[in-house]
From TrEMBL:
Family: Belongs to the peroxidase family. Classical plant (class III) peroxidase subfamily. Belongs to the peroxidase family. Ascorbate peroxidase subfamily.
Originating organism: Betula platyphylla
Main location as per UniProt: secreted
Its biological purpose: Removal of H(2)O(2), oxidation of toxic reductants, biosynthesis and degradation of lignin, suberization, auxin catabolism, response to environmental stresses such as wounding, pathogen attack and oxidative stress. These functions might be dependent on each isozyme/isoform in each plant tissue.
Domain Plant heme peroxidase family profile: from-to ranges: 18-313
PANTHER family: PEROXIDASE, PTHR31517
Domain of life according to the entry: Eukaryota
Name of the gene encoding the protein in the UniProt record: POD9
Binding site for Ca(2+) 2: T184, D233, T236, D241
Protein name according to UniProt: Peroxidase
Signal sequence residues: 1-17
């Protein structure tokens, strides 16, 4: 089945920082279509790939910038970002591998893994019913992947605490709320929120800010097994819409940070605005995602263009030299 992308899209300024829309126009003109084909095939098989790629993209950009450092595999002697606790449940790496393999066959050593993540995420968002927006490319891949660098906001963080993290990456309060709207297609393991279901802060009762009906449903879900998960949007779980904001206004936020957005005076108005207007949210989301994709990017001659997204080129070269020797 061929899935059509939404007809509506948002045209944004064509140049952002040193990235450019159409960066591969002359060196690999089919680059974006190759990534799109891979993601469309994967989305037909597994629509939850949208959430997986959004999470991968976020976890990559909020560590050392959007440099594909999250893709590097750990070795026996050197752990990578993948070994950090917050990244143990990140998935979708094989989808990026597939896109890279096809791009290397078409245009060897041209398209960066960092651009693949960003393009793949954009395409998955569109397939899930979200905005289809223009995206500048030209990112290069980083040369460092260290688990100690992975310091990400947890699901129980406060609004003010989360804002500090986002501000450090150049994102404003409204952009933080917008990007957390990605939870409309997200899932979470029960261990991220089960403390809210029965003995919240030692009270012997559930978190009073959570809808009692949702508490009952989640208790059933989480009793199944220790690895159980729940959709963060209990209504349109696989659709990139504004239902998430409507639900947290009804006290149906599963993660504490989600519910806090609707309760905190600094963000409640933004939440209400997005809940009442899907198009406004999607326009804001397209703009915020484009900005997120520009965080601390490497351009020009910085970094490298990896041949294998899981391994630095220098490591690949060293391995070959050792084998030859």
């Amino acid at each position: 089945m061929k899935i059509k992308f939404p007809l509506f899209f948002f045209l944004l300024p064509l140049v952002f920082a040193e990235l450019q829309v159409g960066f591969y126009k002359s060196t690999c003109p089919q680059a974006e279509s190759i990534v799109q084909q891979v993601i469309q095939t994967e989305f037909c098989r597994d629509p939850s790939i949208t959430a997986a790629l959004l999470r991968m993209h976020f976890h990559d950009c909020f560590v050392t910038g959007c440099d594909a450092s999250i893709l590097i595999d750990s070795t026996r002697n050197k752990p990578s970002e993948k070994a950090a606790g917050p990244n143990l449940t990140v998935r979708g790496f094989e989808v990026i591998d597939n896109a890279k393999k096809r791009l290397e066959a078409a245009c060897p050593s041209i398209v960066s893994c960092a651009d693949i993540i960003t393009l793949a995420t954009r395409d998955a968002i569109a397939l899930a019913g979200g905005p289809n927006y223009t995206l500048p490319t030209g990112r290069r891949d980083g040369l460092v992947s260290n688990p100690d660098d992975v310091l990400l906001p947890g699901p129980g963080i406060s609004v003010s605490g989360a804002l500090q993290v986002f501000t450090a990456k150049g994102m404003a309060l409204s952009e933080m709320v917008t990007l957390l709207g990605a939870h409309t297609v997200g899932i979470a393991h029960c261990f991220f929120f089960d403390y809210r279901l029965s003995n919240y802060e030692g009270s012997g009762a559930p978190d009073p800010s959570m809808d009692p009906g949702l508490v009952a449903e989640l208790n059933v879900t989480c009793a199944r097994n220790e690895n159980a998960t729940a959709f963060l949007d209990q209504s349109t779980s696989l659709t990139m819409d504004n239902e998430y904001f409507k639900q947290i206004l009804l006290r149906k936020g599963i993660l504490q940070i989600d519910q806090e957005l609707a309760l905190d005076r600094s963000t409640a108005g933004i939440v209400s605005g997005f809940a009442s207007d899907r198009i406004v949210f999607q326009r804001s989301f397209a703009k915020a995602m484009r900005k997120l994709g520009s965080v601390q990017v490497l351009v020009g001659k910085a970094g490298e263009i990896r041949k294998n997204c899981r391994v630095f080129n220098t490591a690949t070269k060293s391995t070959k030299e050792i084998r030859a020797f």
